[in-house]
Amino acid sequence: MHSRAQAKWVRMSPLKVRRIMNLVRGKTAGEAYTTLKFLPHAAAREVEKVLWSAMHNLINHEKTPVSEKEVQDFRVSKIYADQGPTLKRIQPRARGRAFPIKKRTVHITIELDDLQ
């Protein structure tokens, strides 16, 4: 059995999110959640929300629900951050020039599997 959760258009750079994802890739859901809870980075909060959602998708599954104890043993099988659309802004500079500002977004995806 597996579960998938996704957060789209998160206003954060994909590089910053991938740095956090590499820390929890391959861990159990319980270990990953605890790790994310105590990391000081802002990206950890966003990844933590998606992981919580994937865990509770299993708990509230319609056909075969899983208990909260059992969901802790599921593994983070896939976790990736795809780049979303970039918002483009212009900042005025000296002598009539313009400087582009790229406000990046990211799509975060997490899949949990019961691999033992």
Could you explain how this protein is built, in words?
- This protein has 116 residues and is an alpha+beta fold.
- It has a single domain, classed as Ribosomal Protein L22, Chain A (Alpha-Beta Complex).
- It is built from four helices and five strands; from the N terminus they run E-H-H-H-H-E-E-E-E.
- The strands form two sheets. It has a three-stranded antiparallel β-sheet, with helices on one face. The protein has a two-stranded antiparallel ribbon with strand order 3-4.
- A hairpin with a 5-residue loop joins strand 3 and strand 4.
- Helix 1 crosses helix 3 and helix 2 packs antiparallel against helix 3.
- The longest helix is centred in the middle third of the chain and has 18 residues.
- The protein starts with a strand and ends with a strand.
- The model has no long low-confidence stretch (mean pLDDT 95).
